[in-house]
Amino acid sequence: MNKQATQVVDPSVWEDLRAQRKQMEQVIADALQQARDLGATAAEADASLDEGLGVSVRLGEVETVEHTRDRGLTITVYQGQRRGSASCGDLEPATIQETVRRAMDIAKYTQEDPYCGLADAELMAREFPDLDLCHPADLSADAAIERALACEQAGRDADSQINNSEGASFGKNLSISAYGNSHGFVASDYGTSFSQSIALIAGEGDGMQRDYWWDSHRVLDQLEAPELTGRTAAERTVKRLGASQVPTAVVPVLFTPRMAAGLIGHLVSAAAGSALYKRSSFLLDRLQEQLFPSWMNIIEDPFLPQGKRSAAFDAEGVATQRSALIADGCLARYILGSYSARRLGMTTTANAGGTRNLLVNAGGDAGGKDFEALVKQMDRGLIVDEVMGQGVNTVTGDYSRGAAGFWVENGQVSQAVQEVTIAGNLNQVFADIIAAGNDVDQRGNIHAPSLLVEKMTVAGA
């Protein structure tokens, strides 16, 4: 297929992007000065510009073509320990002035909070390495439509049992963001993203099954061929045909990479500062405790080239750093911004705005196995490839979610499974991980391989 898209090499494009970054930084500086002039004792602001193209098709017809261009600014001012925040949807000087005045008015009427305020000045980022995040591409709406159509057609043609489509989509985005505060810190960055997805349907009546596939990268040319995305979605959908329940049992459970990332996501939620100072986390007061097997490490790497969440500074301007969240199976630290850190009597971990590229690393004999080896190792149990519902209690760690996937007997997949529930407690689930795959999914913020849990309750028929 002719993609009709090439990486931009015209120097004028980069000159324009650099000019827009400088403009955004100036907007931030002007807003902060206005806050000072109105009597703010401190202030911080962030501004963003997003430009995008999104198309969707279904059954060979174009459904939507959307061009977007969004701008915005949020200013937060402090009058002592009182805090006020206001936002606006454009960056015109008069609008920004009014937004700063609104933030000041709000601060007058808020209750004093001894924990609010800017992050400490000495923590501000000073170095800004090139993280290779921005790769503009000349891609027309027609080319985007062609790509989405090719993805859907390949999926529909892949197997005669595919009888319907929920559609395919393609999107591209360019974002420029800037942050500054009254410590004198002002910085900006930019990045691109490209994505494609498709959802297909097979079977009839009660036997109908649906599945999807997708891909996402910062560089257009790194996306897999749209035809491959379509065929993968078809293969996944057809494999689900004939799915049924299985008897209730306590068995090994193998989480595929996407599901494993979600499992680690529950760890992130429980380790977040807001959950901790509200005393609504099962990880409260558990720093340095063993949570996982000793061969498990989870590293945050904000400097990962082309990473989904790579950045030299967090949402408060604090310099990010590569560090362990889980070290040799132990909880090495919490996930804190400056506010939650003060509430806990601790120091920010440069995680205002969330984590940035969590890498799940498994060492020793338990790590780096191919998927077939993990299936053989589990012998009899459930491969989980989809979860439903919100049955995760971060206060107690109790875990109970609807699931679908595949049943394994004698080390081989025997049937598709649906309408079952997997249950346990995250404390035990983390401790019971006995092996990890070599199939790391790098498309999201959490890079996780397949994870094999020794036992969980599978509630079925």
Description:
The protein is of the alpha+beta class and 461 residues long. It has two domains: 231 residues, PmbA/TldD superfamily (PmbA/TldD fold); 211 residues, no CATH class. Helices cover 25% and strands 36% of the residues. The protein contains nine helices and 19 strands. It has a six-stranded antiparallel β-sheet. The protein has a five-stranded mixed barrel with strand order 9-14-15-16-19. A five-stranded mixed β-sheet has the order 12-11-10-13-18, with helices on one face. A hairpin with a 6-residue loop joins strand 7 and strand 8. It is globular and about 70 Å long.
Rg over C-alpha atoms, rounded to the nearest angstrom: 24 Å
CATH superfamily heading of the largest domain: PmbA/TldD superfamily
- Helix and strand content put the structural class at alpha+beta
Give the SSE order as H and E letters.
Answer: EHEEEHEHEEEHEHHEEEHEHEEEHEEE
CATH-level-2 architecture of the largest domain: 2-Layer Sandwich
Taken as a percent bin, the fraction of beta residues is 35-45%
Distance between the termini: 47 Å
What is the CATH T-level topology of the largest domain? Answer: PmbA/TldD fold
Count helical runs: 9
Number of strands: 19
User: In CATH, what is the class of the largest domain?
Assistant: Alpha Beta
Q: Mean pLDDT, rounded to whole units?
A: 95
